[in-house]
Amino acid sequence: xxxxxxxxxxxxxxxxxxxxxxxxxxxxxxxxxxxxxxxxxxxxxxxxxxxxxxxxxxxxxxxxxxxxxxxxxxxxxxxxxxxxxxxxxxxxxxxxxxxxxxxxxxxxxxxxxxxxxxxxxxxxxxxxxxxxxxxxxxxxxxxxxxxxxxxxxxxxxxxxxxxxxxxxxxxxxxxxxxxxxxxxxxxxxxxxxxxxxxxxxxxxxxxxxxxxxxxxxxxxxxxxxxxxxxxxxxxxxxxxxxxxxxxxxxxxxxxxxxxxxxxxxxxxxxxxxxxxxxxxxxxxxxxxxxxxxxxxxxxxxxxxxxxxxxxxxxxxxxxxxxxxxxxxxxxxxxxxxxxxxxxxxxxxxxxxxxxxxxxxxxxxxxxxxxxxxxxxxxxxxxxxxxxxxxxxxxxxxxxxxxxxxxxxxxxxxxxxxxxxxxxxxxxxxxxxxxxxxxxxxxxxxxxxxxxxxxxxxxxxxxxxxxxxxxxxxxxxxxxxxxxxxxxxxxxxxxxxxxxxxxxxxxxxxxxxxxxxxxxxxxxxxxxxxxxxxxxxxxxxxxxxxxxxxxxxxxxxxxxxxxxxxxxxxxxxxxxxxxxxxxxxxxxxxxxxxxxxxxxxxxxxxxxxxxxxxxxxxxxxxxxxxxxxxxxxxxxxxxxxxxxxxxxxxxxxxxxxxxxxxx
Length: 662
Prior knowledge:
Blueprint: H1 6-11, H2 18-30, H3 34-44, H4 49-56, H5 64-76, H6 83-86, H7 97-104, H8 110-126, H9 143-148, H10 151-161, E1 163-166, E2 171-174, H11 181-187, H12 189-202, H13 216-242, H14 249-277, H15 304-325, H16 337-351, H17 359-410, H18 412-435, H19 440-456, H20 463-473, H21 477-490, H22 493-510, H23 516-532, H24 539-549, H25 555-565, H26 569-589, H27 593-618, H28 644-647
Antiparallel strand pairs: 1-2
């Protein structure tokens, strides 16, 4: 067992080795107390004297059953370990005193914790593509069993996978996974590719002139539409086949409104900025155009709206077929009056297509569609990495070698417009939060979640952080558990804002005489894709093509737009993801806005009462900006340090609305 002096060195580290953790565990259980040592020794010797000697010497691992028995015995003897003063610094359940209290009460048994870990692992494995990489699965045939065989391994497993202990729910929950330098490099792979290509181009080397590498841009942007169309369609299919549109209608309507607001902001900002600065001269993009880019040709993206409609209808048919197989639509509706008649008429009409004969076949076909979605979600990101990254590097080298930094200056009008639009969108989100009752402390939580989304560039990957921030703000658990998972799929406020900005700017450059139908098709495509597309890194490159196809541009013009946006694509992608996260949180805060306002009103009342009490004691008005009270003239006004509107806010007469305990 380590000497007492080793405690400080263990506490000062951010990571403990399994051996070091076992020593720390024994030390904190006993902490120099003979009664504690006798209790620990008695429990461990139940498996033999050798067991106590092995664990004491660090030659064997303590199991969770043994830890639970030790804590339970200590609790019965009214003694306890010293975890509060010697907890490891890294964030795991072993860093939470409430976790040990639960183990001592035998609420969290080893089997129950193992079941929770299995559930967390299974949930993480459902997340496809980039998100699946967030959950580190150790190379072992039974990783959870291995983790539960040793308290130190359990702590290590939880740390690697961001698992924490929620004292309010008394269960293990998924938190934010610790990020390494390698994670940061992976997240910045497109930015690094663009920067590397630019550096090579400025050195006078044009990678586009090389015989094999020069084919990468044309290959990437040529194949992209044929993979992106089924990728978008299948993911929309998967989204609508998993969620009930009717049941989640209020949340989905909020997402639709937020997405539409982003699109409206993009239209207004683009019109204003192009009128103020003009647009980029298309001739300046000629040197940066994609090498080998075609001048025209068929693209499935031209029919993206019908494709989305087909996959949406397929998802609804699949859900209806499953319900039919389960017998949910075999009996007439019991609704009274006209509603029941209309429901029965609708069910009969749908039953002509989805009935007991066709439903089993449709269910099997729908399950195949789910497997196809999983397959393309695994393959498409690899295509983006293996072909897209070199394509970006080649394109940047060709741009810099041909036009140099001056060419990027020629694109400044688009960059200024795009970042201005995203900034306006962010300001609109913050104004919405303020209107719903959020204040300075809440804005820190919002900013932290947005910063996580900015660094990860993935809305889905930021969901754990969103839950934490919403909990800190005061949003109920019921709202968090409903809105956040849906928001990772359906709410793409930043995506609609960015795609709208780029589409309208492209129309101003190449198609200033666009018809009303072009605008309608562009708006509809942006809304449809933004509401159903998965939040993955580099989604701009993936999702922009179908939007630009609806603007009336030909392939060569679309390639030039890509050449213009790619130099800043990574930063734009990260920024729009941060706005997506804020959009999710607006949709979550909105249902609980009255609750937040009530809490704010109670805080104002408490502050007033404290100040009045201080004034009564001092006989003079108080000034909270000073650490010690300083007498002031009797006629001096009270300094409430609050906005006037809040000072006049009436005290709520009703009790706080009932809701889940936070």
